[in-house]
Amino acid sequence: MRSYSVSLLGILMLLFLARCEEKPKKGSRVASLPYYNDSRFTPRWLEAGSEILKEFHRIPEFDLVNQDGETITQQTFNDKIYVADFIFTTCPGICPRMTANMALLQEAYINDTDVLLLSHSVTPEIDSVPVLKSFAQSKGIQSGKWHLATGDRTQIYDLGRNYYFAEEDLGAVKTANDFLHTENFVLVDKNRHIRGIYNGLNKTSVRQLMADIETLKREN
After folding, report:
1. Do the annotations mark residue 91 as ligand-binding?
2. If pLDDT is split at 50, 70 and 90, which confidence band does 48 have?
3. What distance in Å separates the CA atoms of residue 138 and residue 122, rounded to the nearest whole number?
4. The CATH number of the domain where 91 resides is what?
5. Which of 5, 41, 194, 220 is the most exposed place for a label (fewest CB within 10 A)?
């Protein structure tokens, strides 16, 4: 009887170890993602195709230039899921870590045509096309997958503050002269709706972003 108990225990332990070695399933902890329409990031759980979504907050049209000197607009991201952030090439603080984590997204989705990346320069007067091109080459940024955007400063700051809600200084009044600096990554779906915000410095948060991208891909 004793040897039978030992054998049974061994089988149970092998089953437990096998389960521990299983790869986690891709996808978010929820079946669908919420929608967001203001800087408080209060989740709105809406059905796809809902009438409310016809008038719901979207990222507006824009006209910027990428590291290859190409004009990029919403047409560039038409029918794409994309992740946006706001950086500058001479940043000595949070931007290098954000760029390293965005590079993880590039690696994960390098062959996935449904997913793009968009980094806006918050110092476009410094980050010219040649500067962005040199930066892209130094960081292994792939043209066509990850766009580094420069252009009109007012437009970039308006997008960041009033449409991506990228800053967390809720209630603080900002002018066009106030510097835009944030560690957030913003997830945008194929219909230009915001579906998530993530700490771009935190690898756990970036892993959750990847899981949420998988959820969005199933939705679309």
Report:
1. yes
2. confident
3. 19
4. 3.40.30.10
5. 5
